[in-house]
Each structure stands twice: as C-alpha cells, then as structure tokens.
Amino acid sequence: MALIVQKYGGSSVADAESIKRVAKRIVDTRRAGHEVVVAVSAMGDTTDELLELAGQVAPMPAPRELDMLLSSGERISMALLAMAIHSMGFEARSFTGSQAGMITDATHGAARIVDVTPVRLREALDDGAIVIVAGFQGFNRDTRDITTLGRGGSDTTAVALAAALRADVCEIYSDVDGIFTADPRVVPRAQKLSSISSEEMLELAANGAKVLYIRAVEYARRHGVLIHARSTFSPDVGTWVVGPGQSLPEGEKGENMEEPIVAGVATDLSQAKITVIGVPDVPGKAADIFKIVAKSGANVDMIVQNASAAATGLADISFTLPKSDATAALKALAGEQSEVGFQSLVHDDQIGKLSIVGAGMRTHSGVAATLFEALSVARINIEMISTSEIRTSVVVRGDNLGEAARVVHSAYGLDGETEAVVYAGTGR
Amino acid sequence: MALIVQKYGGSSVADAESIKRVAKRIVDTRRAGHEVVVAVSAMGDTTDELLELAGQVAPMPAPRELDMLLSSGERISMALLAMAIHSMGFEARSFTGSQAGMITDATHGAARIVDVTPVRLREALDDGAIVIVAGFQGFNRDTRDITTLGRGGSDTTAVALAAALRADVCEIYSDVDGIFTADPRVVPRAQKLSSISSEEMLELAANGAKVLYIRAVEYARRHGVLIHARSTFSPDVGTWVVGPGQSLPEGEKGENMEEPIVAGVATDLSQAKITVIGVPDVPGKAADIFKIVAKSGANVDMIVQNASAAATGLADISFTLPKSDATAALKALAGEQSEVGFQSLVHDDQIGKLSIVGAGMRTHSGVAATLFEALSVARINIEMISTSEIRTSVVVRGDNLGEAARVVHSAYGLDGETEAVVYAGTGR
C-alpha cells in the first residue's frame, strides 16, 4: 500500500462529466489498495470569471478580499469531487486549505508556504477516507485570514502535501501525457520522456515548457518528493521527475536511464528584446541600466553587450524580458536617458527563444556546437546566446522559432518515429 | 451612534451593479455614524446552480460535502461586497460563518444555531471596519465542519448576529417595501404596514406570507431583536416587526399603533388536501391515521373530521399538507388501508388557503363572522375552517383564492386608496 497524492487542474474538472471521470480515476487508485490525497483546482475558468467579477465591483480589489473570493473556486470543485466519489460508494472528505493545515505567510495573492500540518488529513486517511484538498489556498496563523498561493498554486499544494504526508509519489495530472522532448505543437516528432531529472525539469520550465510549474518542482526537489506527470485521459505511465538520489518506484524504469546529453528543447515566445544603443563604454553604465530596469519591476532574462567600437567609445546593450514588463522598463529607461547618457532605445517583441537542456552538457564538450551548426544549415540567424551549466539558449526571429526547434530537435537525435498526439488545451 | 445589522438577499446582490448599489447603501449607513454588520446571501441563483451541479455529479450528494459546496456561494458575494466598499474608501472585512463565530449543531443542510461568538466581528468594528458576514452558514465545533442553516438561513444569520452583538436594529432588505396587509400581487389595494407585532408576523409567515422567514422572526422574538423589513431600492422606512415589550427607535412611530383587529390577510396555494373516506367511527382511528401520515414525513396543517353518520358508523377525515408531501402520505396511507379499515382516499391539489391574522382577535368577538359573510356574499364556498388565538383560516377552491382575498381584505377595511407597486421578484 502506498500513499499517493494526486493533483487535478481546472481543465480536468471543468464540468460534471469531467468530475465524474476524475472521481472514477481516484476510486480506481483507492481500489488498488492505496491511500489517496487529492489536490484539486477550481473548475475550468472559474478563477478567471471570479477575477472579472472582482474587476467589475472594484478597480483595485482589496487583496484580503480577493483571496477570500478566489478561494471559493476550489471549495466548489472539491465538494463536487468528494460527492461524486461518495456516490461511488467510497468515503471521501474535502478540506479547505486552512482545514488541511496549509499554513502560509500573509502575502495575499502570492503566499509562501511556511508550514504544513495535515492532522485532519491523516485522521481522515486513518478512517479509510479519500482526502480531497482545495489547491492554491492556505491560511495565515497571525491574521487568521485565507491566503492564495498564486499561479501554479495547486501544483505546489500537491507537492507540499506529498512532502508533509511523506507520500510515495505526487502525481500531477493534466491533459498531456507527460514531459516531452519539445512542445509537440511545435515539434510534431517530440517524444515523451519516461523520466527527467528535477534540475533539467527546472531549466525546461524556466525556459518555456508549460507542463509543470517551477515552484512546485523546486519544492519537490528540496523536500525529496517524486513527481509523476501524467494524463487525466490515459492510464499510461507519464514522466517521472526524479530528484537527486531518488529512484523510481519498484517495477518502473525510465527508458532513458543513461543520462541523455540533451533531455529536451524548450521554446518561448513570451519575451521581448530591448536594445540600449550608444551607451558610453565606461565602468558602471551597465549597472546603472539594470538598476533602472529592476526598479521598474521587470524581470531580465538574457543580457548581451556587444564589443565596444574603439573609435566611438560607445557600446550597445541588449536584454530580454517578459513582453508584459517591456513597457514599464522602456518608460523607466527613457526617463533616465540624459542621466545614463545613451543614444536611443529599440524595442523588439518579435523574438523567440530556443533552449536546449541536458545534464550531460556538464560532462560533454561541444554540445552547443551541434545547435549552432543546425541553425546555420537552416539559415536561421542567432541574435543572442546565453548558457548555464546544463542549458544553452539562443534568441532568433519569432517567425523562425518553430523551424529552429524542429531542426535542433532532429540534430540531437530526439525525433520519434511517429508524430505525438496533440491536445487542444494546455492542461493547466 | 447605533449598531445596525443589515441583511441583503440574493436578488439584492445578483450582479456587479447590484453589489455596488448595496455597497453604497452600506457606506451611507456607516457615514451616518453607525457601526454596520452585514449578512449577505449568495448572488442571485448561485445556490440553485450549485445544487444543480451537485445533482449532476451525485444523485444523493453527501450532506457534509453539500454544505461545503453551498457555503462557497456567500463567500463569493461577501468578498465582492467587501471589495466594493473598500474601493469607496471604507474599511471592510468579510468573514465566513465559522470566522464569525456562528456555532451550530452538526445537522448538515438544516443546522440549528447553538452559540454565536462574534469576537472577530467585535474586533473589526472596534477597528472602525464595516463587517460583512456570510449568511446561511455556520460551523460545528465537534466535527470542525462547515454547516448550512437551510432555507431562510441568511435572515436567521442576521438576527442571530444582531442578538449576539446587541444591535439596535436588524434591517432585512428585499425588493419589497415591507410587510403588506396582503400580497400586493393578489390584492392590489394592499397597504404597507408601518409596524406589526412579531406574533402576528409569525402567523402571517406560517400561513403563506413570504417577506420574512418564520425562523428568523422566532429567533428575534426570543432574543429581543427589533426587525426592520425594508426595500433595497428605496430609502423609505419599511415595516417594524416589534416583539413583546419592545418599542420603536426614537422618532419612528407606527401609524397603526392602535392594535388593529386584523393586521393582514395571508394566501397560500402550496397546500393539498387529502380526504380519508369511510373511517370506522371508533376511538383511536384518527390517531392511527395521523401516526401513519407523520411517519411518511408529511407536515399536516389543518384537520377536519365531519360528523359521523349515525346510520353507517363511518366518518370522513380531511387534512391539508404541503403539496410536496402528498404523494408520500398517500402511499403510506394506502399501505395501511386494511389495517385502519377506511374505504378510500381522495387527493385534491387545487385548494387555496386564506388566513386573517390579528392580535385584536383575542379581545374582539365576532371577527371571523365578517370573513364568512364576505365570502358568502361573493358566493365562495368554504371547505375547511381552522382557528388559532389570533388567526382564522379557511380552505377554498384555488381558483377562488384571489377573489376571496380581495373581498376579505376589503371587508376588514384594509384597502388602501391607491394600488401598491408590485415588483417582479420576491426579494429572497
């Protein structure tokens, strides 16, 4: 008998039929003799609808009240799920974040988990019940107020419960079959990975892969939780996300247990590029620029400074950042133009970022050369390059990103023999 | 400075616009220098929609989970209302039933309030905040589970809060202007009462009047809470519901402070009549019949036994009960026909009940004669009669109920000079 934590996202419980299907899946797990704890998101677009309502009654909703509002979404889905399980003849009990002992700090809208005290969940499990917990929400002990964890909160709830209950595995269900070597909508010959290291998963998620939230993977890595990313709509094994020193459950094995040089290719169209032209090439100018950008609240990703032209004594500095941060950053920079002494600003929101991620890059030299070669053959121009220990990223024209991903995927021998099945949604 | 508890029903907070209107009303009360505590229902048809969803996932939803589900409705409306008030520059805090200290027994779906400990509400009021509380819901201390109070629960929440906080008045808002001498949709010349005694209000509510729930009026009577039933859409004074020994706030006076003989006429089309024909006229037979009916779960209202025909030794017994209880009662009786020895059953769901209610009936004789006379002149046949200390009810054909109400209303001198304005909804 194992203790299994399962997480179902909003699209998995979008309507009564979906809820019944998920209930059956949970009951099957219980029937197999396991203890089951489920973290569930709000139904379908409930959270967005509630946010819209909030916007209609108040232009800047009070954060405490916004959390009170949003937390009702999971309350609905979890109660319905518990009912559905109950009507299949199994005992099920639903718990709010506060009842589940999900203790957070008091940062409404983006609360951090500070403690998990799942006393009532353990009691319910000991009574033989299936436990359903509201994802995304917690409780602050000092203010006695409801909090929410922010984007990806339900994944984090599931992983945090798995850690606190010492679960054998945390299954994150979505409408995709697992983690792929690339986004199958971009690279049709992408293959499902049977396993991936958590550090590779973190790099993929940070660079555009959308199946798991970084925060949940980080939490799992820190607390030794084994994640199994799999599909709500299929009984097949998905992808195991394995932390340091962890091994797969008995009987399960990754097909690619030998460390791959490149685990996957991530693509990201969500970034923009800003180039600061004609920056005086004297020490401290780059620091000035990024202080200004940071103060605007923008999250800078890649930075490239070109070689200074000796004749002019001026350099250009380019950086990428989320498209949604670009306006604020441009405004902040323009406001300090005379102070910094640069000539002009160029804003480019037609870029695409491609990253290859693989733990093998640590020990194999020349891995990036294959990337550059493949893009060169395809006549795709590289505009920026950045690297980490296990990742190389390049910026290309957004129009070229799909083709770039396909040729790179192929160059690293990642292509499958058949095309992957692609679903409409993203499973969040 | 007074402490005012206000209750807004679902139709008063049906959408963002309504919520903003209610928020403004609350802010106006606060601005006038009063402390304000608001009990709010779920938006519009939310509760019915949640019930329908529940029915889709489970034919017989688990009661604990149904309460968890339904309690999310008020969570949404109260958070939105608090946000709207907040954005008008006033401090507002919303509280769930559990946070508000609404302690109930563990009867899911129809919990009884056992204690109210509004510590957090008092703190918030002392901080100068407007307090918004989820109506309809509570919390059981032993199971630590969420409960709901059942139909009319939000009215009861408001009155219970008013009692626990020693509020000066409990204002129950709806889309009607107050308590009328009759339902204005049935009797166009019905007049708004400026005040009514709580015992008369109880009789009217028990006999078909829909503005206030019996349970809330009972609670108010027992705990000395002054109720003011008024309209969300008008600043006018509504109707004061005055308990024994209570007086109206300074400056307010009922126009009809002299005890009226008849305060109002109530009409009710929700009942059916069952007649048990040919019951052996021996002691104990009526008891047998009503034991069977009670066991079927039916709630018997009026009972009439005709004089036994000496020749046959058989009597007929008629009784009324809610239409929804009739099938179960008929089935139960039919199952015991040979045991009881009656001849047949007649089911009649085309009846209407008319009641006149007035505390003056205690001290004035012959009040009912006016009722019988008026119906006789209108050639409306009376099928059953029952009386209490301050009420006389008659059963007539359902088709005749409207006309019966109009002639009786007129006969007691209750007609106003103009027709009352009638709204579409019922304000629940």
From TrEMBL, chains A, B:
Keywords: Amino-acid biosynthesis, ATP-binding, Diaminopimelate biosynthesis, Kinase, Lysine biosynthesis, Nucleotide-binding, Transferase. SUPFAM superfamilies: ACT-like, Carbamate kinase-like. Its EC number is 2.7.2.4. It is an enzyme of class 2 (transferase). It catalyses: L-aspartate + ATP = 4-phospho-L-aspartate + ADP. It holds the Pfam family ACT_9. InterPro entries: AceGlu_kinase-like_sf, ACT-like_dom_sf, ACT_Aspartokinase, ACT_dom, AKii-LysC-BS, Asp/Glu/Uridylate_kinase, Asp_kin_monofn, Asp_kinase. Coiled coil: none annotated. The keyword Signal does not apply. Pathway: Amino-acid biosynthesis; L-threonine biosynthesis; L-threonine from L-aspartate: step 1/5; Amino-acid biosynthesis; L-lysine biosynthesis via DAP pathway; (S)-tetrahydrodipicolinate from L-aspartate: step 1/4; Amino-acid biosynthesis; L-methionine biosynthesis via de novo pathway; L-homoserine from L-aspartate: step 1/3. Residues 274-359 form the ACT domain. GO terms for molecular function: aspartate kinase activity. PROSITE patterns: ACT, ASPARTOKINASE. PANTHER family: ASPARTATE KINASE (PTHR21499), ASPARTOKINASE (PTHR21499:SF3). Catalyzes the phosphorylation of the beta-carboxyl group of aspartic acid with ATP to yield 4-phospho-L-aspartate, which is involved in the branched biosynthetic pathway leading to the biosynthesis of amino acids lysine, threonine, isoleucine and methionine. Belongs to the aspartokinase family. This is Aspartokinase. It comes from Microbacterium invictum. The lineage of its organism: Bacteria, Bacillati, Actinomycetota, Actinomycetes, Micrococcales.
